[in-house]
Amino acid sequence: ANEEITASEIWRYALYGHPTLSIYFQSPVIFRRIKTRKNKIFLMKGKDDPVNRLCYLNSDIIL
Q: How much is the pTM?
């Protein structure tokens, strides 16, 4: 059976933990949470939560 696999199926399986996907960034990337108020963007201070730790992409602190 020659069935095509769609991109949405790959993402759905990845979100459920099968298979493991990895992302490679060519240059250093820093993610920050933002908040918007009255059409202005504010950077949020980092916390020691899992999302913030993942944003640093450091293999020593990733769960």
A: 0.29
